[in-house]
Amino acid sequence: MKKFASVLLSGLLLASCGGNQARAKRPEAPVEPKEYTYRVRAVHPHLQTSYTQGLQYAGGRLWEGTGQHGQSVVQTIDLETGRAELFARLPHEEFGEGITLLGDKLYQLTWQSNKAYVYDLKTGKKIKEFRYPGEGWGLTTDGEKLYMSDGTPNIYTVDPATFKREKRTTVTYKGMAINFLNELEWIDGKLWANVYTTDQIVIIDPATGVVEGVVDLAGILPEEEITPATDVLNGIAYDAAGKRIFVTGKNWSKLFEIEITEK
Ligand SMILES: [Ca+2]
Fold it and tell me: Which regions of 90-226 does DSSP assign to beta strands (E)?
């Protein structure tokens, strides 16, 4: 399976809108999103065995949550060597999804078992489990609240103490709801989201759900790095202090530090 053809966001995403995601009723004209391209600032190794579902830079380290039954872990990655150090392993029956670190805890979603795991950051021990409806996809934090995607156009604002959903925001691109929002990252007050099966990341105003920018990462993984195991672009992490943006993909051999510029 190869999904690296440069799929135009407008074509694929609008086509993927479900029947219940009708045109959002907005009185004003839809925002025209800015189009961004990228420049690779650094290339790092990435374990090709990692089916990346969550990525976050915190405490001077890169954290990764992976998926697949029997292979779902949380690990830290050494940027120079790509070597992973195990933090926690999910039970065999669980399929890991997004992760985020907040305070002294690490949160991990699961795909279809409606469960979020909460770990003590110091010990790696599971200290709590929360239930939520629907699927778990991406997870990030603004330093106070959690933001969660579930494969639909919706992003939920979640209370980290209770995992209760406080707000649902429907993400729209040129006035149309867009589906398959995946891995998330909070970058300077905006929500960045991978869009499943595409090479694009959308930049969302978290207050309104309006997509203000689209980053086209088509071609970022060189042809020679693509193997039968290589899957889709997924995973965004931000080093706020160093102003570094990291991206990778599921079972990719590389992880990239990028900067973006308007097309
Ligand atoms: Ca992330």
Answer: 96-102, 105-110, 115-120, 126-131, 139-141, 146-149, 154-158, 165-170, 172-173, 176-177, 181-187, 190-195, 200-204, 211-216
